[in-house]
Amino acid sequence: MRTPSILAIALLSLAAASSVHAAGKDPAAICAEAEERYVALTGQPSSEADGVVVVTMYKYNFCPAQITVQVGTTVRWVNVDKRTSHSVLSPAAGMPESDRAFPDESVEFTFLTPGDQDYLCGPHWETRDMIGMVTVKE
Length: 138
Fold this sequence. Notes:
The structure is a single chain. The chain is α/β, with parallel strands linked by helices and 138 residues long. It has helices at 4-16, 27-42, 125-128; strands at residues 53-58, 61-63, 66-70, 73-79, 106-111, 115-120, 131-137. The strands form two sheets. It has a four-stranded mixed sheet, covered by helices on one side.
């Protein structure tokens, strides 16, 4: 595992990189596919999840990659990929790396500290730029 200072470098390189990922597809198109898979899995849109904010993990992307929540909000990352496992960690939020979430599994974390808090997929942030951001408001 790399140190959090490497995370800052990775975020800068991500910001400078092209916005096209995963076989040349636009992140918006990937996230639309991810939402379709989420609905097929749960029977409802991610916006209707009870008591949590949902972020899907699909084709090495977090969907959406940036969210804003209130202090005390639980975020649930749901893996809607068919074959790949992902983890989630956020050194800025004090979140250690989660167990791997295999297809159709999820990981949750409650954000208690205000501010911008980067998070990433442990096995895929460096090779696939799988990085996201939660802005936590009071």
